[in-house]
Design brief:
The complex is a heterodimer.
Chain A: H1 2-7, H2 13-40, H3 55-68, H4 75-82, H5 86-102, E1 107-112, E2 115-120, H6 125-132, H7 142-154, E3 157-158, H8 159-166, H9 172-179, E4 183-188, E5 196-200, H10 202-207, H11 222-227
Antiparallel strand pairs in A: 1-2, 3-5, 4-5
Helix pairs in contact in A: 3-5, 4-5, 7-8, 7-9
Chain B: E1 8-9, E2 28-31, E3 38-41, H1 48-58, H2 68-84, H3 91-108, H4 125-152, H5 173-190, H6 202-216, E4 218-220, H7 221-226, H8 231-246, E5 250-254, E6 261-265
Helix pairs in contact in B: 1-4, 2-3, 6-8
Classes of the chains: A mainly alpha, B mainly alpha.
Chain lengths: 229, 267
């Protein structure tokens, strides 16, 4: 489009005038459409909002908020927005998710990384992928996963401690995890050399679909599993 | 769990696809057609402990009562195979080899008859504990792997308008036209008397815009348009913005919806 514009020699006044008229017309149409869109959208920061009247309305509002939230939405955040008691919100969330998930539809309302989120059910991933034309992204290497497991269960943990458990000398997989933001530095250990300690990040919870760290199965339970094959 | 027991197959097979290789070790023993020798296809071992665990499983011995001499021999044989296959043997594998040899030696030494039997520690206990510990995290890594696999099959909603991830995409041509329109309207009222002056060319206008953007890295387009002293200049100014966007010298974005349009140098 820009090339066309460029060909218009600015001295042709008629054309400029016509363009001007067209642009004014379009701008007016755009403005109209935008104001309509703005009216459709909720504008929670404009003045005080009435708290939801009924339980059903509360659930409906919460559902809407979770839908528009880019990140998993925490109960606290919802409570703040609605100016409601967090317990009430939690109860509503529990009822809402039960009701929503009982539908057994293509979507699930689930708790992940300390918040609530709508997501597709994994059963339908092939169709979703075909539609989105995507492939599963590259997985972590075994070395990285082992390192991540050590960090997840032993955090905060230092590099020498991680390497010792894994029986290797190269910290490269730790670097990989840090680059992928799956782990974060958690401060320095009060020990000789003050080594940096690492722990898992929120991104870790998101990528592994965990509500929080307590959802990880106990590492002691792996004891028996791993030996017998 | 997903560990593959070594299989004997007629000919070398392609390496297993990634999902089956999750346990790290999927080496296979294959027969060489010519020499009838057994050959070992190595899987990827994540470290010496991984290899050691594999050998213990392969030899079907108890992790709590490792026959050190036998396992050490096997371990060293593996290292030799790795070297033959030109796989760079990492230093940590060699450290473990040294540990194993030391252990083997200790096991061969006669026990001190004067020592009280109960107090005497099994020289293998450190290694056993290390293996048990590592084994747990290896299993945990498998658990993480399957969790990640399931999670990759779960899709979140696509981005919507209000997600502010990428302000660059927020400005369309119509937004630009609108700003232009506003200024043009104001301009009409202001300029009543046109005094003849040297007309600026498109090239000069482009140069002006470039200079203004480059000097600060960012430029509020409202400021730029307001510098135009005639409608002709305004049109040129508008065209030059389009031109710089087309040649991707600048990107346009808004700090907020309906906010001023900012041109930023593309680095």
């Amino acid at each position: 489009m820009a090339t066309e514009e460029q060909n218009v020699t600015p001295t042709v006044d008629d054309e400029a005038a016509l363009n001007e008229e067209a642009s004014r017309e379009l701008a007016a149409m755009v403005a109209e459409e935008e104001s309509a869109a703005a009216m459709d959208a909720e504008t929670p920061d404009d003045g005080p909002l009435a708290s939801p009247q009924s339980q059903a309305e509360r659930a409906a509002v919460i559902e809407a908020l979770i839908y528009v939230s880019e990140e998993p939405l925490s109960a606290k955040h919802i409570a703040d927005v609605l100016k409601e008691d967090k317990d009430v919100v939690n109860q509503t969330l529990a009822a809402l998710s039960e009701e929503f998930n009982a539908r057994n539809g293509g979507l699930q309302l689930r708790e992940v990384a300390g918040g609530w989120q709508f997501a597709t059910r994994p059963e339908y991933h092939e169709h979703v992928r075909a539609f989105l034309k995507t492939r599963p992204s590259a997985k972590l290497t075994i070395a990285s996963l082992e390192t991540l497991a050590v960090i997840a269960y032993r955090q905060p943990v230092t590099v020498p401690e991680i390497l010792e458990i894994r029986g290797v000398q190269s910290p490269s997989s730790i670097k990989t995890l840090l680059d992928k933001k799956l782990i974060v530095a958690k401060g320095r250990k009060e020990a000789v050399g003050r080594p940096m300690m690492y722990g898992t990040s929120k991104e870790f919870l998101l990528q592994f679909g965990l509500k929080d760290l307590s959802e990880l199965p106990s590492v002691e339970d792996f004891h028996d599993l791993s030996g017998g094959s | 769990m997903n560990e593959q027991t070594p299989e004997t197959v007629a000919e070398p097979v392609e390496e297993q696809p990634a999902p089956l290789n999750v346990a790290g070790a999927t080496p296979q023993i294959v027969t060489d057609d010519v020499t009838d020798d057994l050959k070992i296809l190595l899987g990827d071992f994540e470290g010496p402990l991984d290899l050691l665990l594999h050998l213990i499983r392969q030899e079907q011995v108890s992790i709590y009562d490792i026959p050190v001499a036998r396992i050490t021999d096997e371990y060293l044989r593996y290292l030799r195979v790795m070297q033959e296959m030109d796989i760079a043997v990492a230093g940590d594998f060699l450290v473990m080899a040294a540990t194993l040899i030391e252990l083997k030696t200790k096991m061969l030494l006669p026990r001190d008859p004067s020592a009280v039997a109960e107090e005497e520690e099994d020289p293998r206990s450190d290694l056993v504990n290390q293996l048990l510990e590592y084994q747990k995290y290896k299993a945990a890594a498998q658990m993480l792997w399957s969790r990640a696999t399931v999670e990759q099959a779960v899709f979140k909603r696509a981005e919507i308008e209000t997600d502010k991830n990428n302000p660059e995409v927020a400005v369309g041509l119509f937004d630009l036209l609108k700003v232009f329109q506003d200024i043009l309207a104001r301009h009409k009222e202001e300029v009543l008397l046109e005094i003849e002056r040297e007309e600026i060319s498109m090239a000069e206008m482009l140069e002006r815009l470039r200079n203004m953007v480059m000097s600060s890295g960012e430029l509020n387009l409202r400021v730029f348009f307001e510098r135009a002293r005639s409608r002709r200049e305004l049109v040129l100014a508008f065209l030059s913005v389009l031109e710089l966007v087309r040649t991707t010298e600048v990107k346009l974005f808004q700090r907020e919806t309906f906010g001023d349009i900012i041109a930023r140098v593309v680095t």
